[in-house]
């Protein structure tokens, strides 16, 4: 690896140029000791934001016209360039986020895996939604036109890097991979808490764009801690869609801004949720201690900073339930304190728990108190079901390693808790044979309120696959009709275009009758692709 | 047909009950003579709106649980009940809209055809987007979960009836058919200019719901001329999506309202466009007179009240171009005046043309003046390309039978006009062999700006089929990623839900391995449905 590969200049990466015009600078901070990390990063100016989107708008037609095979090669080249950064990328990410190297290595594998999965998705072309209805000039009373449709790229997409996934949901993360796969140029707003990681990965993308002959402007990275940089990106007339992973407050602010534009644009904001886990009586009674231990592991995984962290558990207030809480409390107490991503998350976590603990009838079983500057420990609180139903604050996400137990006196209360839930990324059921009746009542209720329903297990750890839905009704996301993880995420960045009565030679290749197109295609009401040969 | 079938009581239809609590009443007006038509209709009260959405929310789980076959039967029963209304439905629609009986007969056929097409779509089940990724408990380092996903209904949908399609995009129109097909209960806000048509069709739906055993609340119809009725519907917490066809102003107002809700919801507003027709030099030169005549027929079809009306034609200011304009002007002048849908449209049409005519360098070739109270004639105006580029008002839709010719001095200007266009439902190219180079430059530009690109012909007359895209970038619609015509419209009203590690018997039937499911299904990366037997 060349030294150039590990350069961090603190610049904006604007297409294949760099720019350092901003006077305001900022640094990353190591959450383990709260000390600043070199180098200084420049905050993007209005002109630099403007330039990034001008370049992206100019690149859009050329990028889409290069075709699917070239885009797939670009995605694969990004994966290879990220791998070529080697251990120093992980070390920088570790210094900026406090996440352990082992976790970051896994996250890098997920990141490059996502890029390669989208390369396969683009090559297969099924996402294009090809449809052909042949015409019939002899139809009476009116001739039937020949109509054919396929997906086109929306245009420039603004991606906001997430703090909790410095690789897999940041500069070259899932949103960027899906948007590039669709044929959309991407402008990333790096998360201000890991600017070095962002720049290293950004440079890897720029190198990949150069080596695969992409148009300048297919990718830019702008940085800056002030909200204005993000606001300018969302408001720029060339921006066609926004992808965001973060807090409800941040996501809603960007959503509102985007909807008030003269030309509104879609915002795919994944804003987290409390991810309720329903622990049904027979299942709890079978082994309350094991349940408590497994929950503690899930609640504290990644210091509770997964958007699918189980922040709410719903169970019956009986003897087995008490045993479960005791086991959970014991297991949580045994987990050592660990650094959160940054001081802001610690403030939010402690503030959220304090607000909750101040409510009447909320009981604190295990406190979150930790000594390190950005550190936290797993916390457990409980609330009676009736109080939960009456108390809006108990429904809000507390981001970090805590969970709130909702104690139900009977099944009626348990169902009322389910009915009261807002939109969720996930909802989980733990049930044994004797819980069957309750399970059958709960499944449709949870399917109405969540993007993913789990039977057993825990929602943390989102599999990247075709069938995954990482989404859900508001406030989990701003668009429940899409997913941010898995191959279906590409659908967020395309729109269908129909071609009517076109001569064969002027049609996009995929829509020509004799093109030998192997992508899934609906022709005159019948899917004509045989897929057995294409796994 | 029973007399009951033709009853118009002026009531709100709330599930299978009716309600007439509103003190405010209104009537339809015959646009041919501006006279009021009996009976009086009651405007819905806040309580009636509340009741409609309470019923819809309560009906949602039961309606979806009935399954696809029962929903298909309901859609077919609606079609049959509409046909059973016979000629009196057409006569009432004719009195309320001034649209000729022949056109309304065709529109009724499209309406029942849409309902039956969606019944087939629901039965086939391909729209469910079934995906199965089998688990692998032995995968290292982490076991692979079993993940399966499919579409679920969003919940209650509010549909606004359109004035210009009193049957095909009104109470039982495309939006209602698509939403019911998806499993969403529907509350229709009838268009205040055809309340009698709305009530007759609404009662047909209620009868169909009863005869097929649908849950009460699967359908309601509320009426009223004041914007407040629609606003309450959009703001009600139970509403999950909104479908609208109408003006930019009306659509944007509902969109804004929906996005400002505590829980924002998708609004699918189809707001029309100017539908540019590019008449390229060699094509015009080949037969300018035929072009002029064909354009006149398209511009005045349905008194210019199609959302795909060609409101803008772009051509070169040469001899052939002048001959085309002369032929178009002559043909337009020969078309007799005809009633618009209501006096408001006449005011808007005349006001829009006056605003345009007042601009410097706009030339009026044929005036719209008509004598009837709601009547209009075809109008033709022209503007030089450079003025068009400088003049925002020239880009705005004038709803009615008029077109604006943009006169280009060369190909560079013609491409600049294309590049300046806002989002459109359609864009059309008329080209001959010698226009090839210009065509190849224009196609990707138009595909970026429109939902449907036509080669030859005219955009009026939207084929209802699988491949149709009736949509396009803002301001044509508020969601370019969807269509309001054709089978793909069902996708607007569903969202995917994933089931993780579910026991086979608790999964929805379509996601079970051994279910014999014939719908398109992606299993472990391969589509496993063979469709040859299912045309």
Write up what this structure looks like.
The structure is a homodimer of 535-residue chains. The first copy, chain A, is an alpha/beta fold and 535 residues long. The first copy, chain A, folds into two domains: 10-28 and 35-271 and 482-491, Aldehyde Dehydrogenase, Chain A, domain 1 (3-Layer(aba) Sandwich); 276-455, Aldehyde Dehydrogenase, Chain A, domain 2. Chain A has 15 helices and 23 strands. Chain A has a seven-stranded mixed sheet with strand order 2-1-9-8-7-10-11, with helices on both faces. In chain A, strands 15-17-18-13-12-19-20 form a seven-stranded mixed sheet, with helices on both faces. In chain A, helix 15 (436-449) links the parallel strand 19 and strand 20. The radius of gyration of chain A is 25 Å and the shape is globular. Mean pLDDT of chain A is 95; it is low at 530-535. Strand 21 of chain A pairs parallel with strand 20 of chain B.
Q: How would you summarize what this structure contains?
A:
The first copy, chain A, has helices at 46-65, 68-84, 86-97, 101-124, 174-182, 195-211, 227-235, 248-259, 281-286, 288-300, 319-333, 343-357, 385-390, 411-420, 436-449, and strands at 12-14, 17-19, 25-30, 35-42, 130-133, 147-153, 157-160, 186-189, 219-222, 241-245, 267-270, 276-279, 312-316, 338-339, 363-366, 375-376, 379-384, 402-408, 424-430, 450-455, 494-500, 521-523, 526-527. With 535 residues, chain A is of the alpha/beta class.
